[in-house]
Write a structure and sequence with these properties.
Blueprint: H1 2-17, H2 24-57, H3 63-68, H4 73-82, H5 96-111, H6 119-135, H7 146-150, H8 154-170, H9 177-194, H10 200-228, H11 234-272, H12 291-343
Helix pairs in contact: 1-5, 1-8, 1-10, 2-5, 2-11, 2-12, 6-8, 8-10, 9-10, 11-12
Length: 345
């Protein structure tokens, strides 16, 4: 999933900036857009995780994990807030992927300073530098510092996604998208089933070598199919796309909470209905049989999606709208006025 995420990220960054003029104004607007998209939801869910740690252990972080790497609590909190590399996972563990994302955006912003015709060469140069540093041993399974972050082979997945978008946008029409998508599905399934896990190679070079091309094929094919797609079914898929970031950050809260809620429902239900203990074991995850697993999996998917939709509509979207209106709109108005002045007779 992380590999798909990084390839999609590279694709989207090129897709949303390709028609924009090169220069400082575009870079500023790009970085603001990325910051407003990522940080408010990240701070919300990190705060929820910090609250859980505080209520459970008396500190807003995992003190045992920090002690293991001799990490300073204040350093850990600040680096978690701003998604900077550190020896530990951020307060909300899956934020390690966003540390990479922030790095991608910063480097990609420099590429946006140049005319778009130079983008393939600059992306290729970036890939060569990353692979060269990784071959020198400057990478690692985890971006614990800036050196390992800069030369992480995960960056290659982002770059390949960016190349995929560039190829997609430069073509008059997609090249056999259904065939490429189908081949991507087969390749991805084969990679998932055949690639050994877990080991250090998997976490470094292995996943990049095995999963990057299938992910790029999936993405190119899906984007090409979307160009031709019509129908009402596109709207719910678009909504899922809107909710995807909140879904990514919040799903494990639902996953962790469901077994607790299920056990409470079972105990209360048996008591209120006068049933024998164990009658409602279908709600207790870990009971004999597969019904509890089926119920849990269904609740996990539906519950995580509903939770993400609520967070998106009541927090993520309002925050993004407010920040865009307050900070990005004036910048866009200035750029529009500058362009009008430039082309005026």
């Amino acid at each position: 999933g992380v590999d798909v995420f990084f390839v999609i990220s590279g694709f989207i960054m090129v897709y949303v900036t390709f028609s924009r003029p090169s220069g400082v104004a575009t870079v500023k607007d790009f970085l603001l857009a990325r910051a407003f998209r990522i940080y408010p939801p990240w701070w919300l869910f990190s705060g929820m995780m910090a609250l859980f740690f505080f209520l459970s252990y008396g500190t807003p972080y995992d003190a045992a994990a920090l002690a293991q790497y001799d990490n300073d609590p204040l350093n850990h909190i600040l680096r978690s807030i701003f998604l900077l590399p550190q020896p530990n996972f951020p307060i909300l563990g899956l934020g390690w992927t966003l540390v990479h994302e922030v790095w991608f955006y910063i480097v990609f912003a420099f590429i946006l300073l140049a005319p778009r015709k130079y983008m393939p060469a600059l992306l290729g140069l970036w890939a060569v530098i990353v692979l060269g540093g990784a071959a020198m041993g400057w990478t690692g399974a985890f971006a614990a510092d800036y050196l390992k972050l800069a030369f992480s082979v995960h960056t290659v997945e982002f770059i390949v996604g960016a190349f995929t978008a560039y190829l997609f946008l430069k073509q008059d029409k997609p090249f056999f998208p259904a065939v490429i998508f189908g081949l991507g599905v087969v390749a991805f399934i084969a990679a998932t089933l055949l690639h050994p896990y877990p080991n250090r190679f998997t976490l470094e070079w292995g996943r990049m070598l095995v999963f990057t091309l299938p992910c790029a094929m999936l993405l190119y094919g899906a984007a090409g199919l979307q160009v031709r797609a019509t129908g009402r079914w596109l709207k719910p898929l678009s909504r899922l796309g809107d909710w995807s970031f909140s879904l990514y950050l919040g799903h494990h809260f639902v996953i962790a909470g469901l077994p607790i809620i299920g056990a409470i429902i079972a105990a209360k239900g048996e008591t209120m209905l006068g049933m024998a203990p164990g009658t409602l074991n279908v709600f207790r995850l870990g009971s004999a049989g597969i019904l509890d697993n089926a119920l849990y999996m269904t609740g996990m998917v539906i519950g995580s999606t509903i939770f993400a939709a609520i967070i998106y509509h009541f927090f993520e979207q309002p925050a993004l709208r407010f920040l865009t209106k307050r900070f990005r709109k004036p910048q866009a108005d200035k750029e529009k006025a500058r362009l009008n002045k430039t082309v005026a007779p």
